[in-house]
Amino acid sequence: MLQPLNKGIIQNCKVNYRRQVIERLLILIHQDKPLKIDLWMVMQMIKGGWTDVTRETMQNCFKKTGFVSSSALAASVEDVVSDAPEDAQQAQREAGEAQLVSDADDLDDLDAAHDAMSVTEELDNSAIIHEVKAKARPEAQSLEEDSDDDLSPLAPIDSATVNEYIAALKDFFFSRVLPEEHVSNLENL
C-alpha cells in the first residue's frame, strides 16, 4: 500500500512544504522580522503541504502503481506534481532577489539532496524479529513483577506542569486536525 506514496504523493507533499518554507521566509524578510521558523510553524507547514496534495495527484499515483486498469491509465495520463515546479521556481526567484539563496543554488540540487536523504530506517527480517523480541522481554518481566500491592500513589503535579501538558495536548489536536471542540474542552479545564 506504500507504493502510491513512493510514486509521487510524498514527493508532492515535500515540494508543497518547501514552497511554504520559502514563502514564509519571504514574508519574514518583507516584514523585517528575524528569519526564524519554530517547530509549531514547521508542523503547520507540513500539514499545509499535505493538504495541498490534490486528489488528481493521488489518483495518478495509484494509477502508476497499477491499482487502475491499464486502459484507464492510458486514457488519462497527467503529471503527478502538477504546477508545483512553477511555484517552486517563482519562490526560488524571489528568494534569490531577497538574497536568501545564491544564484548558484539550484532547486534540482535541493530536490536531489532531499531524495537522497534517508528518512526511515531500512529494516530486514532479522532486525524486525530482534526488535520485537527486545520489546517483548521487558513486558514479560514487568508483568511478573507487577502486583497491586506495589502500586505507589501518584505524586501531585503543580499547575505549571499541568498547563504544559494541556498545551502539548492542544498541539497534538491541531496536528491531527481534530475538531475544535476538543481544544475548547481543554481550555475549559
Shape: extended
Elements, N to C (H/E) = HHHHHHHHH
The beta-strand count equals 0
Strand content: under 5%
Task: Considering the chains and any ligands shown, give keywords for the structure.
189 residues; mainly alpha; extended; 67% helix
What report would you give on this structure?
The model is unreliable at 73-83 (pLDDT under 50). The chain has 189 residues and is an all-alpha fold. It contains nine helices and no strands. The protein is extended. It is 67% helix and 0% strand. The chain has a domain at 3-116.
Q: Would you spell out the secondary-structure blueprint of this structure?
A:
Elements: H1 3-30, H2 39-51, H3 55-64, H4 70-75, H5 84-97, H6 107-116, H7 125-145, H8 159-175, H9 180-187
Helix pairs in contact: 1-2, 1-3, 1-5, 8-9
Domain DDE-1: 2-62
GO molecular function, one term: nucleic acid binding
Organism: Rhipicephalus microplus
Briefly, what is this?
This protein is mostly helical and 189 residues long. Helices cover 67% and strands 0% of the residues. It starts with a helix and ends with a helix.
